[in-house]
Amino acid sequence: MYALVGLSRAVGSPPWSKATAPIWAHVSGYAPRLRGSAGLAFLRAFADDSAAQTGDKRLFYSGYLHRADAWADFSEAWDFELHQWPAIEYFKASGDQFNGWDASIRDAKIAKLARVIRHFEPISFQFSLNRKLFEDELKPVSPYGLGRPHLVGCFAVVAGITQMAPELGIDTPIEFIFDQQDGVDADVKILFSGMLDSLSPEARKLVAGDPWFKDDRDKQFMPLQAADMLAWHVRRQHEYPDKRLAILADLTRPSGHLMGEIPDDMIRSWAAHHSTVPGVELVKTRNQWAKFSREHKRLVAARIDRRKITRPGIYYPEGTPFIAKLIDRIRRLFRAN
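RE: above sequence
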């Protein structure tokens, strides 16, 4: 499911091995023995999405992982390059910043921004899923929130990076920041803790709280623009496999580009499982899901632990027992595998 492309597993040391540990200790501000108890996320992963419109309509989530302090330096360098002639306010592959530009000038500008990424050498990654299969087979039998491929794509990034962390030499918490996607942030607040239960205890320790969803035009989150650049080119390469995009050499880290995909068989197994869960019909529409979301917020505000709801009457009035049951069922949907 996951692979590191370009990183030799037989010869040499992976990134952040013992040889580089003093560097990590220095930049984080904590000695190695204190990192585990510092309670801070020293690493940040930024990810954005891009979806193909042909074939399997594959959805890609791509981006970069680096130290928080390196991202601060990166943002300054990125902002500087954005405003060099010919200047743009921000980078977004599908935006209007390059309207009216000559193609050669546009490509030269993008190449200069790509060299900023190469200079800082973040770990690059890409995760994908068959969006056509997802929407044809999983979406029709799933709760509204879980029938959205972007939610699953976000979790694929979290799961993939944390499960590959030992091979990368990572043992510190990671903050995950995604570009905004309509409604996904609200669904994550409901479902993320349940999804984390499917990870190993070691992987869960590396997740520094719920993911953030931010505007990639916000100067505080400029690495999202770099993630957007990578996601767009990865998706483009998928659509045109015979046309090698040379810029990917600058956008992917040669010493370790992390790749993963959700297998089609897993999507089908989720669909088979979801179709047998009682009560799913009650939260399949947008309005039904909105009602469920409001009830979830009410429970959170009341500081009720939804995981302990096992039958009607414990936390709910007798008039609304199905919602109580459904919260627990939705949390368990991803445990089928």
